[in-house]
Amino acid sequence: MRLTQTKAELRAATAVRPRAVVMTMGALHEGHAALLAEARERVGPEGSVVLTIFVNPLQFGPTEDFDRYPRTLASDLAIAKNEGVDLVFNPSRDELYPNEPSITVHPGPLADELEGMVRPGHFGGVLTVVSKLLHLTQPDLALFGEKDYQQLTLIREMVCDLDWNVDIVPVPTVREPDGLAMSSRNRYLDETERDEALVLYRALTAGAKAGMNGPDAVLAAAHSELEAVPSVKIDYLALRAPDLGPVIGPGEARMLIAARVGQTRLIDNISITLR
């Protein structure tokens, strides 16, 4: 496994095809390991798996946790090596943004909904860094977790609209045994908050079980679970079509939730079949 920290080193090291990239902000956990394992499986022993680790300042708001976001490079590299990663790109801020960017990616109207209502400008920062990393790594495949479902949807739209020659591969959310979606921010939770956070998954699964009774029943079932833990503050609970447009009739849908547990903000989502 090779560690690169400059764009020049990266360009010199990315000659192997096929190539898959997994983009992260570090603080890797089993969810990231699942992405890397899927990438290794898809490109095979002759291909190359590239992991990027970069805490992207453009996607953090002024009151968010950029400065305290966990940086755990040594353990990240150990996980990467264990999952068969060939190349790690871990640039500094100055390497990736030598100048304050004046041209960024405009993410479109979906970016102002759901997460975008609570975190204005967030997805512009996400799509800008994803665009740069796609350009720098030149992959055949880019793998993203379904836990960040709105991000995944917007990346798919960007790749389609801008004709990027890359396949975007979704990977299902990896959960703890009790259902909590794995997240680098879970380490912020104390023992009590960790127990309270489980209400997010309980609400989503209750909504999924009510799918046979229609959208109103789905939302009612989810809200009923959330009301039992008033200390968890909900930013939004939404039921959308798979492309995050409005739900129209029976079929597949996606329920998304964001909430604050103590000082920690968590997101999750689940696929729901409406009848």
The average pLDDT value, as a whole number, equals 97
Strand content of the residues, in percent?
15-25%
Radius of gyration: 19 Å
Protein structure class? alpha/beta
Uncertain runs are none
EC number: 6.3.2.1
InterPro entries: Pantoate_ligase (IPR003721), Pantoate_ligase_C (IPR042176), Rossmann-like_a/b/a_fold (IPR014729)
Keywords: ATP-binding, Cytoplasm, Ligase, Nucleotide-binding, Pantothenate biosynthesis
Pathway: Cofactor biosynthesis; (R)-pantothenate biosynthesis; (R)-pantothenate from (R)-pantoate and beta-alanine: step 1/1
What do you see in this structure?
- It contains nine helices and nine strands.
- Helix 6 packs across helix 7 and helix 8 packs antiparallel against helix 9 (215-227).
- Strand 8 (251-261) and strand 9 form a beta hairpin.
- The protein is of the alpha/beta class and 275 residues long.
- The longest helix has 19 residues, at 191-209.
Can you tag this structure with a few keywords?
275 residues, alpha/beta, six-stranded parallel beta sheet, three-stranded antiparallel beta sheet
Short account of what is shown:
The protein has helices spanning 7-13, 30-43, 73-82, 93-96, 115-118, 122-137, 149-161, 191-209, 215-227; strands at residues 2-4, 19-24, 48-53, 87-89, 141-145, 167-171, 233-240, 251-261, 264-274.
Question: Helix and strand layout, with pairings?
Answer:
Layout: E1 2-4, H1 7-13, E2 19-24, H2 30-43, E3 48-53, H3 73-82, E4 87-89, H4 93-96, H5 115-118, H6 122-137, E5 141-145, H7 149-161, E6 167-171, H8 191-209, H9 215-227, E7 233-240, E8 251-261, E9 264-274
Parallel strand pairs: 1-4, 2-3, 2-5, 3-4, 5-6
Antiparallel strand pairs: 7-8, 8-9
Helix pairs in contact: 6-7, 8-9
